[in-house]
Amino acid sequence: MQTAHRSIVVLTGAGISAESGLATFRDKDGLWEGHRVEDVACPEAFARDPARVQRFYNLRRAGLQTVEPNAAHLALARLQRDYPGEVTLLTQNVDDLHERAGSQGVIHMHGELLKVFCGRCGWKRGWQGDLTGSDPCPSCERTHTLRPDIVWFGEIPYRMDEIEDVLMRAEVFAAIGTSGHVYPAAGFVSLARFHGAATIEINAQGTQVSGQFDRHLVGPATVEVARWVEECLG
Ligand code: OAD
Description:
The chain is of the alpha/beta class. Helix content is 34%, strand content 18%. It has helices at residues 15-18, 31-34, 37-40, 43-48, 50-64, 71-82, 97-101, 160-169, 188-194, 221-233; strands at residues 8-12, 87-91, 107-108, 111-118, 124-126, 146-150, 172-176, 198-203, 215-218.
């Protein structure tokens, strides 16, 4: 049966939060310019030097509490609220700016900065302050086992079955502010497209996967996402 309103799947990356003041990873002055992934964003780094890894994420967690959602986050929340069809929001971002803007059911495939879990017993919950090696796990009481709830390189992103399912059903797929360097997210456009979705990339510049999209809006997310949402609702 043909429905009047198409299901929309949106994937966001660090670029959507850039105008809120959070550094992206690969732009000039991006996070990976000042740090090596192997030192702060993989399980081996945490095993080797947990204090260094905790410091890196403690700074990010503190920084997150000083920024606000921007017009692009707000526009996507409005799209979810006002669009008569299904709108699913997938994000590679570990910030909570989509939620603070009012989005619902955001799928955080790379985890969430404001959560921690115990690598030994699996206990997980929200966490606002710094994390040090001496915090005991409230469940199993071991120390040196709590870690940020971040999917590190070499680990499997969360909720992939659910994500595949929504991508295969998507009629519109939009990727916003992501460079297309990191898989599996960089492959979502080809999966959605293979299953018949119209695809759109919204980014400040072209990316290495731009050629796979049907349509491009090039410019700052605060302007281009707001414009695209108006069009979807119009
Ligand atoms: P990147 O830093 O790789 O890419 C950010 C993208 O945002 C680039 O394509 C920029 O052109 C674009 N951009 C920057 N400012 C923008 C703006 N104001 N408006 C629109 N676009 C803008 O970030 P991601 O693609 O999100 O993973 O990176 C993917 C993953 O790599 C991250 O989730 C993280 C990282 O390593 C983990 O840590 C597991």
